[in-house]
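Pipeline run #58 for the internal structure catalog. This entry was flagged by the ingest filter as a single-chain record with no existing model, so it goes straight to prediction. Upstream metadata was stripped on purpose; only the residue string is passed forward. Reviewer on rotation: M.T. Logging verbosity set to normal.
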Amino acid sequence: MPGGRLTSEDRQRIAAGLAEGLGYAELGRRLGRPASTIMREVTRNGGPEGYRAERAEEDTATRARRARKAQPVAPAVPDSGYGRDPEAVQGFMETFTAMLAQSGLPKMEARVLAAIFTTDDGSLTAADLVQRLRVSAASVSHAVGFLEQQGLVRRERVPGERRERYVTDDEIWLRSLLGAAEMNETLAGMARQGADVLGTDTPAGARFASSAELFVIIGQSMRELLERCRQHLDAQKAERET
């Protein structure tokens, strides 16, 4: 960790900064630490609303004791021959996983997606995930099922084998945004229905009508943005193929 481990004083300053409404970037600047370090510290210890310096200190010490006793140690993430720093990669994966969880993904699903997305070929088998994450095959299967429903991973059969690989690609965020756009359109329709049922000349009906207008504007903007993103990705793909 840049600058050494966080001290009790650092945690007091983080707690005070969160109470002031400061973001991770500003807290990191004041403490001379990367914003990712602050984000990981806060996420692990109650989140922005529940972070308490004393409790964070105690919980960190407890986790450290458990980690020293834990056997076997999880294998390092392979560097695929690129000479990467294993500790830096592992630290990034933890931060990336925490960010995914903070954005709404369940913890196990976030761990699985982070593990797959940080591989160079964007794919892992169930056995790979069990070994890397030290979890059960059932946990992996449940997480993959959820991610598949969200369009974040897909299954591919390994040629000549019965095994499946769980695969992701450069377009997962585009598909995620497309799903959000479709949900937004559903909300717009529901809001219009609410306005009709309740009556637009009533306070409740007017509220639904206003919401419908907002959803329509957001939906149109998202569709236009998604089209530009699609064109950008297609141009990148064409460049790689030439």
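catalog note: The chain has a mean pLDDT of 86.
catalog note: Residues 18 and 168 are 35 Å apart (CA to CA).
status: ready for reviewer M.T.
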